Amino acid sequence: MIRIAIIGSGPTGIYTLKGLVGSAVPISITVFEAESDPGKGTPYHPDINDRAMLSNIASIELPVICESLVQWLRRQTDADLQRLLINRDAINEREFYPRVVLGEFLQAQFLRLVASGQQKGHVVDVRARERVVDIALQTDDVRVTVQQLDGLRTEFAFDHVVMATGHDWPENIEVKPGYFVSPWPAQALKQIGNCRVGILGTSLSGIDALITVATAHGAFYLDPAGQLQFQASADNENFHVTMMSRKGLLPEADFYCEIPYIEPLFCTNEAIDALLATGRHNLLDDIFDLFKQEMIAADPAYAAKIGLSMLTVETVAPAYFAAREHTDPFVWAAQNLAEAEQNKKNRYTVQWRYAILRMHEVIARAIPQLDDTDLDRFHKHFKTVFVDDYATVPHASIARLLALHRAGILDIIALGANYTVSTDGVESGVVLMHHGKTVEYEAFIDATGQHAMSAVDIPFPTLIEQGVVRKATTPQAQPVISAEIAESTVRTGGIDLDHAFRPKFEDNLCNHLYCAAISFLLHKLPFVQGITSAHDIGNVVSAAILSNIEQAHAGRFQMSA
C-alpha cells in the first residue's frame, strides 16, 4: 500500500483525510497527533480554550465533513446538549457556538472518517500523544521522526507526508511574571489576579483573552430588561482591563448575507485571470480598479460617502475606517450591534460589506503573482480592509464587551504606530509607553493572534539542514525599459511552494511533502484563515496525492500487463 502520514488532526488534517479515504485504491494513512484527543484541533480543544470562548464561524459556513454542525447538534441527546450548554430550541445554522463545541463536532466527524476509511479497505492508524519532531526528505520517500511521551523516538518512512500542524502556540505562555505572549492555553490566564490588565489586540483573539480573564473575576447575567450585564466578585474591586491596538477599534458584529455568495459583477475570477494572463506583476492598481467598480455597482451611496472614486490603494483604508476612528468605540459597537441584530432578523444585507466579503477570495488569487513592491503595498495598505470585513465577531461577543464597559471594568486605547512594551523595572507585567505616557499593567496579554511564519521557523531541523525549505520567491519590481527585460526575483517570506503546497527545490529528493500549515502560507495567501481555508487546502493536498497514486497504480498495471 501507498503510505501516507498526516501530521495533525485538526481541521486541515480532517479535510485532507476526507479526501484521501475517497481513494479507489487501498492506501495506508497514519495520523500523528501530539494531543491526547485526536480530531479536536488546537483552536477548539478544551485544554486550550475557555468554555466561554466563541468561534467566529456559523454552522452555515462550515464545509460539510460527514454532516453539518446543525445536523450533529440536533441528533445529540438532551444530556449532551446540556453538557455543551446548548439550548435545543436555539440550534440554528446562523448561530455561533463555543470553540469547545466545535472541537467535539470535529472529533466526531474525524472518528466517522476513520471508520469509513477502514470500511472501504484502507488502513487508518491514529497515533495520539505522539509528536513529530523531525522530517527528512530521502530519494524515494520521506522519513518522519516521532517522539512519544516517554521520550522514546521512532522513525517511519512514508510515500507522502502532510504537515497539517495548524496553530503554533508556546507551551509556556507566561514568559515573565505577569507577561503572557498568547491567550492560549486559556487556563493560564485564569491565574491573573485582582489587578490592572492590559490586552494587546482587539480582534476575536483579544476578546477571547478578555472573556477568559473576566469570567475568573465575575459573571455575566441578564437583567430584568433582558440586557446582558456583568457583575464582578466582591473581592475584585481593583480588577480592570484595558484593550489596545494601533487604531483602538473594536471588530464589528457579524452581518447577515446570502450564502453561498452571489457572484461579483466586475471583480470576478475571470477578470483576475485576465490580469494574471498578461504575465505582468505590477497588478495591484488594476485590481484596485476592479474593487472600485464592484463597490460602486453594489452600493453607490456608500462609495460616494467615502469618496471611493478618488481613492487609491494607499488611501482606501483611512477612508474606510475614518468614521469609526472618530467615534467612541463602545458607542460605535452598540450602534453596530443593534443594526446587525435588526438586519439578521429582517434578513437584510448591507451591500458594501457583502461586496468586500465576496471580493476577498477573488482578489486573493492574484496575490502570489504580485511583485515585491505591490505585495508590500497590499500588506501595508489594502489587506486591512478585507480582514476587518471578514473578521467580524459573534453578536454575543460584542454584547459582552458592552456589558464589561458598562460595569466600569473595560476601556480601549489607541496606541498609534509608536509605542513600546517593556518588562524592565517591574516585578510583574509590563510598562507601556505611548503618546508620551507611561502606564504599568500588573498583567499583560499579547493577543495579536497567530503571526505569519517563514522558512526559518520550520520546527523540523533536518528539513532546514537539507535546504529544501526556503522563503517564497517574489518577482522584483523593475522599471519598464523594454519588453525583454530579464525577470529577477527576491525571497520575501513564507515558504516557496508549488500549486499543491509542496516545497520547491532542485535536489534529487522525494517531493511528496505538503506544507498545509496555515501559518506558513499567510505571506502569499493572506486570507488563509479558519476552517473554510482548512477545507480548501485539504482538498488541494488530497487531490494531489490521489492523482499521484492513480498515476503510480496505472504505471504498475501497465508494467504487469
TrEMBL record:
Residues 5-167 form the FAD-dependent urate hydroxylase HpyO/Asp monooxygenase CreE-like FAD/NAD(P)-binding domain. Pfam families: NAD_binding_9 (PF13454). Transmembrane segments: none annotated. This is FAD-dependent urate hydroxylase HpyO/Asp monooxygenase CreE-like FAD/NAD(P)-binding domain-containing protein.
